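Subject: complex prediction, re-run

Hi both,

The earlier run crashed halfway through, so I resubmitted it with identical inputs.
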Amino acid sequence: MTLAGLVIGISAVIGVASAFLILNDDLQENFVRTTPPNVSAVVGELTSDQVQRLAGIPGVEAVEERRATLVRLEIRPDVWFNTMLFVVEDFDDMRIATIDPETGSWPAMDGEVLIERDGRYYINTQFGEQMNFRFSDGTERALTYTGQVHDAGQPPTHMERLIYGYITRATYDSWGLDNQYTRLLMTVTDEAQALPEPQSEAASMHAAPEPDSRAQYAADHLIPVMDFMGKEFVTASVLDAENHPHKFQMVSIMALLTGLMLTAMTLCAALTINLIDSILTAEIRNIGVMKAIGGRHGQILRPYLLGMGALGGLAAMIGLSFALNFGRGLADIAARMINFNILTETDPIWLAPSMVALGMVIPVLLTWWRVDQAIRKPVRVALQNDAHLQTGSSQLHFTRTIGWIPLVPRMALRNLFRSPRRTGLTVMMVVVGIISFLMAANIRSSLLDTVDAVDRTQLASVVARTRTPVDTDAMDQWLTRYDEIESVEYWTTRMSEMLEIGESVGRNQAINFVPEDMAMLVPDMMEGEWLSADRPSGIVISTLMHIDEGMEVGDVMDIKVGGERTSVTVIGVVKEFGGGAVYGTEALASTLGLDTEASNAILIRLRDRSMLTQIRFGRALETAMLADDWSVFAVSTNSDLEAVISGHLDIIARALEVVAVVMLAVCALGLASSTSVSVIERTREIGVLKAIGGRGGAIRGIFLWEAVFVALIGWGIATVLAPIPSEIVSTNFGIVMVQYPFNYKAEIWSIPMAACIALIIAILASILPAQAAARHSVREAIQSV
Amino acid sequence: MSTVIQLQSASKTYSVDKRDITVLQPTDLTVERGEFIAVTGPSGSGKSTLLNLITGIDHPTGGMVIVDGQNFGGLSESKLAHLRGKLVGIVFQFFQLIPTLTSLENIVLAMDLVGAIPGGQRRKRAMTLLEQVGVGEQANKLPSRLSGGEQQRVAIARALANDPSVLIADEPTGNLDSVNAEKVRAIFAQCAADGRTVIVATHDPRGLEQFDRVIKISDGVTTETPRTVVSAPVAAQ
Ligand SMILES: Nc1ncnc2c1ncn2[C@@H]1O[C@H](COP(=O)(O)OP(=O)(O)O)[C@@H](O)[C@H]1O
Ligand SMILES: [Mg+2]
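This time it finished cleanly. Structure:
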């Protein structure tokens, strides 16, 4: 059993370590291989010659045009999924943000579309079949789906709810869309590479950027260059080309894995200590004898170290293939989550030897420690055999207070104090197991509560967005045809550019200008406060912007909407699911010269808010609005949002349940091994009990009680500690999976349930060892003195 | 007088390295109620083997052991343990008290395990027994706080816990100094005087005069010296 424990412990450590290495290297490698852009910019329409000329900006390495248009793909009749179509100038000569062919044909021909592989879970189209796209103006166009590609530079479809498609320039041009802008991707030279020497003093002011701000410099430089070319400059953003967009998620997964690794390591150590202690129990007299006849420290220690080293090495070799497969499995799951490829084909050469080394070093060190202590015991104590099992009178004093407890459980309780270290280790294992269980339960309830929170905070059942602002009075009039509507609210949403003070390019972000008497959103504030009329220049940002972009309450920045520019202050962070969102007052909209009577977001609350009604109403509304020439481009329902969250819920909940079951199993194993050691240690005592009339049941009872006490103590500690990791993990899991921290909500029922599980584990773990104790031959037991 | 213990050609054979070694030759023995018996012989002669057969701690490889009319051979381990607890009190050479229990608790535990003494009387009875063997003061101390002689007296009190008719002691004085050994022997004599059957194994030929019967054992063969033969020369000294 202890060999099994060692195998599991060592394999878990090595498995997680190898997963760790594979993931860390490969995510970075996947991302860097796509040659991610340092700058993305939107400027007036350029010819390809003009695009290439931009490569002359100091520090710029390459420039490529990559138009993108947001459309919707019909994944099932009348079910539309947001899709980003990228226009690739030349599939065979992509230099920036490259993609790799996976299956189907490559490259895309005119009239064909390639889809990013993570979208495969959503689409129901076979290669060669038509895909129907709906554009923001309501028009629809079809393309032939011919292949699947991997785009390691994009956050995965299943997380962003965004499919990525790739089409040729000719396909795009044939649509004759009304778009006179060019989207550019630029890379800058390595820091190591020297920039051209400045020719003049004037040039030196422009051309000597700090290496780490070369991307910023290139972005800024576009403004005068466009001016010079007589083209419009719209926006430019500096991107992080070093880190995968989901590196944060990756790091969180790593943190979780590290936690698992540490747990595995401690369990491994605890099991090893148990094994050593059980061996020492039988050996302590031999050690005493060896010392009595003049054996020196090293002489006595050596055989034990050799023995344990050999056992650990054996365990490591047995567990090796399991460990490597486990590591690969873990890495695969993580890779699938973030949509990247495992590139590492073979495990590092040093992994196998280091596993064997680790397998030997840990047990040898622990043996050294335990045996050394045993050797240091005076010969007299050692020869007295179970002197280490004597109870001190201080412990007796403590246990006097429990004199009312029946004798057998009282005895079991005192027995726990006979080897406090082992009891401590065992309790720790139980704590780990029970915490895993409680965490799984707490996180599950947090997830459910988060889904509920969407219902509590997002009161609009259906949101319709239009391309051009609609007159709110006219829309009110038009909507009277629907009896099922309870209330309607109008918001104005505009693209803005948010500029850090002193920077000339910033990020593009939609801002929702909401009415003062807003009722469709019940703000659940994470920090700061909601908008108010007293602070017209205040804005509220969503959690994603706070977490991902690092914006804080109190940040002051300029925003630019349709040419108007004004300064705003972040006054609050609102908990919100999904992408980044910014809210401002109607007063702010007026400052920016927007007409708040013309809105482009219509929020509708239905009387019947069942999922089915929402979806039916949403589809009917879109059809009717298109028919009546309202320039609708998207209708979303609240249930879409809930579907996203619950979609992830299952995976997380399942994963946590698996972790909990594994940990509980390990905890049962630990408890069983510690009970076994107790049985071995107390062989003689068991013999005495039987000699004076103790029946099997009574003997089993003592060990059962001991296991029950350990389990209950572990449960108590776990109950106190569990909320801490539960809260951390539920917050981070939320951020990892859906960029939104889950509301932490403890599952009260899990506590009594955990107590039952602890008891069951105690019973299961003590049955076999106690059975063995009851079967001891009395004569042999007493002879073992 | 009635028979409490009966051995009918009971023997014990071990097989070591495929060779059979008979450590107790077929032995017939009848013990009557209230007898005070010594089993004596050199170390390794088979004293413990004989006593273990009588207590049911060990099973004979041949013959039968009958205690209080019960054939120990036909009983399950659990039944045997229970019967032993009720019928036979055992005192070991190394005391064998449970180290986590106080003197009093050790005795109560013996009663709890067997259940022959009503629950309400156990503590009081345990206290009385401790006082009888002269360690009433030590009732609430752990064994590790007691001297060897005190521990052995607690162990005797424990052996008497369930009021057994037979008391078996294997080298009970082997680990004690002569003063304590004398006290312990006196307690056994008192038990025998109270009407219990007491069998004591000892390799020490001293003090055999107080026993009713002395069974000598040598290389697994028992020979009984008639009481008169043993006691006469001692009395003459
Ligand atoms: N488990 C065993 N296997 C083989 N021989 C044994 C075993 N136990 C005891 N013996 C042998 O039986 C003989 C009698 O032992 P024992 O009854 O303990 O003697 P005593 O109590 O008189 O010293 C000894 O020679 C001993 O070596
Ligand atoms: Mg002996």
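The radius of gyration of chain A is 34 Å.

- K.
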